[in-house]
């Protein structure tokens, strides 16, 4: 039997978390030769994920620079990918999501006339500036890709509206596959503060905030609201693993430092993060991935953004858009901290994003596309 050489390309923490289980699934199957190329758009935050999943990349472009610009990331990825694609000559390149690595990886493959599979395809806000630059990245990759792996039916419908109808598969999100391997009942944290928190009698709020379109005033508003929440609710303990971006580090230190119940800590490895999420009271975030993980764990989420490309959990009632204005964020958090009824309404586990079998469906779809299986996989029905 001929083997299909499939190259996964990724560079940031969230891509790695969502691609690692897929890379491992491909490596397990005899019909594929799995090759992995990291751009290292993120360095430490990527390596942490590679360690946890024990994934050893075949190629590492090592491009990260402090305060890197979008153009620098894109051009370094493109240049680096040239040599890699020439040498490896894969049958298919898989990219994930909507980062600059995703866009450059897809474009490089296109230049080499190599088919592209887009994992986490079809998410849209229809606002080109928000999230920035991710909305355009995913649209451009959608235009380039030959295979589209949509987490949900509504993502597939988004692509259909753009006339992308061929080789579109609804698979669920691979992040749920990852989540099923990381959360355990008796977890001991490496980060000592997390072992010492009283998750039963205190209200632990997990915070993350990093998006480029929130830099500046929106981030100031968010941080000010978070401090007000900590001041107003003595039972609240805020845990914020701060993204390594110097812009974010500066804002977090400026507005949230020196508060006895705000814990600014280093980025957590993905196992620590998922287990903290499983134990916390509430999540406040502008992250994409957390909006998918927290609902699966039954945790209410306040989204610190103006819009979301993930409407499924909003419709299910476990995620609310809090926006980027201080007063609205404070009021929404205050309600969830003081009104048990309102909290209970949001705190139920829903899984619109996956059932843990997304990687299996994606691998099956690739095998079918290359004529190695008789039928495509059944769609995820979430
Ligand atoms: C990137 C993605 C964003 C994704 C986010 C996940 C783009 C344009 N943005 O944004 O879609 O949501 O990753 O976290 O692709 N840094 C380190 N060490 C690390 C990682 C980052 O020091 O391990 C610092 C560097 O100074 C770097 C800066 O963070 O220049 C920003 O990283 P970058 O990848 O450019 O942007 P993110 O905000 O992380
Ligand atoms: N995450 C992590 N450690 C942290 C913060 C986040 O492992 O300190 C994980 C989180 O659980 C999710 C992913 O990183 O799986 C989300 O990454 P991020 O918020 O950086 O990017 P986004 O999803 O917004 O693109």
Structure description:
With 382 residues, the chain is of the alpha/beta class. 45% of the residues lie in helices and 15% in strands. The protein is built from 16 helices and 13 strands. The strands form 2 sheets. A 7-stranded parallel sheet has the order 3-2-1-4-5-6-7, sandwiched between helices. It has a 6-stranded parallel sheet with strand order 10-9-8-11-12-13, sandwiched between helices. The two termini are 34 Å apart. The model has no long low-confidence stretch (mean pLDDT 97). The structure holds uridine-diphosphate-N-acetylglucosamine and uridine-5'-diphosphate. The site of uridine-5'-diphosphate (UDP) has 17 residues, from helix 1, helix 11 and helix 12.
SSE layout and pairing:
Blueprint: E1 4-10, H1 13-28, E2 32-38, H2 44-53, E3 59-60, H3 70-88, E4 92-96, H4 100-111, E5 116-119, H5 134-144, E6 147-150, H6 153-161, E7 168-170, H7 174-182, H8 192-196, E8 203-208, H9 217-232, E9 236-241, H10 246-256, E10 262-265, H11 270-279, E11 282-285, H12 289-296, E12 301-303, H13 312-315, E13 319-321, H14 326-338, H15 340-346, H16 358-369
Parallel strand pairs: 1-2, 1-4, 2-3, 4-5, 5-6, 6-7, 8-9, 8-11, 9-10, 11-12, 12-13
Helix pairs in contact: 1-2, 1-7, 1-16, 3-4, 4-5, 9-10, 9-14
The structure holds uridine-diphosphate-N-acetylglucosamine (UD1) and uridine-5'-diphosphate.
């Amino acid at each position: 039997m001929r083997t299909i050489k499939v190259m996964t390309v990724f560079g940031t923490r969230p891509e790695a978390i969502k691609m690692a289980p897929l890379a491992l699934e491909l490596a397990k199957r005899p019909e594929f030769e799995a090759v992995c190329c990291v751009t290292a758009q993120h360095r430490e935050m990527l390596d942490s994920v590679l360690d946890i999943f024990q994934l050893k990349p075949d190629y590492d472009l090592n491009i990260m620079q402090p305060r890197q610009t979008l153009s620098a990331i894109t051009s370094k990825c493109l240049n680096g990918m040239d040599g890699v694609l020439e040498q490896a000559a894969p049958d298919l390149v898989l990219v994930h999501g909507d980062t600059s690595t995703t866009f450059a990886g897809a474009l490089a493959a296109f230049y080499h006339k190599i088919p592209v599979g887009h994992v986490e395809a079809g998410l849209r806000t229809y606002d080109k500036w928000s999230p920035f630059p991710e909305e355009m990245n995913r649209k451009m990759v959608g235009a380039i890709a030959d295979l589209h792996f949509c987490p949900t039916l509504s993502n597939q419908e988004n692509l259909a509206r753009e006339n992308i109808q061929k080789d579109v598969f609804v698979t669920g999100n691979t992040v749920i596959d990852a989540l099923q391997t990381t959360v355990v009942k008796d977890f001991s944290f490496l980060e000592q503060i997390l072992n010492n928190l009283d998750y039963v009698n205190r209200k632990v709020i997990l915070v993350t905030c990093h998006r480029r379109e929130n830099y500046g005033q929106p981030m100031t508003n968010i941080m000010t609201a978070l401090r007000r929440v900590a001041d107003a609710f003595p039972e609240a303990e805020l845990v914020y693993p701060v993204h390594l971006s110097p812009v974010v580090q500066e804002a977090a230190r400026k507005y949230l430092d020196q508060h006895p119940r705000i814990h600014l800590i280093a980025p957590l490895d993905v196992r620590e993060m998922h287990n903290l999420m499983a134990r916390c009271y509430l999540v406040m975030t502008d992250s994409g991935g957390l909006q998918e993980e927290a609902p699966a764990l039954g945790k209410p989420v306040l989204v610190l953004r103006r819009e979301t490309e993930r409407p499924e959990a909003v419709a299910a009632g476990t995620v609310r858009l809090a926006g980027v204005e201080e007063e609205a964020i404070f009021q929404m958090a205050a309600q969830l901290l003081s009104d048990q009824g309102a909290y209970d309404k949001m705190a139920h586990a829903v899984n619109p994003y996956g059932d843990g079998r997304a990687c299996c469906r994606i691998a099956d779809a690739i095998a079918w596309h290359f004529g190695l299986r008789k039928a495509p996989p059944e769609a995820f029905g979430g």
